[in-house]
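Milestone M4 deliverable, item 7.
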Amino acid sequence: MTTEHGLTPEKETYERLLRESREMLSGAARTVLAEAQRTACAHYLVPS
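Output delivered:
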């Protein structure tokens, strides 16, 4: 049995949405989003 990390369909969709909409976000919105992602990774140990 292996425990390899794999992306769920929801995570793949989320990441694609972020890539596609990143240019439309303001600098402040990108900063807030980046901080939220860092906090989630640190707090929940979500793989990045």
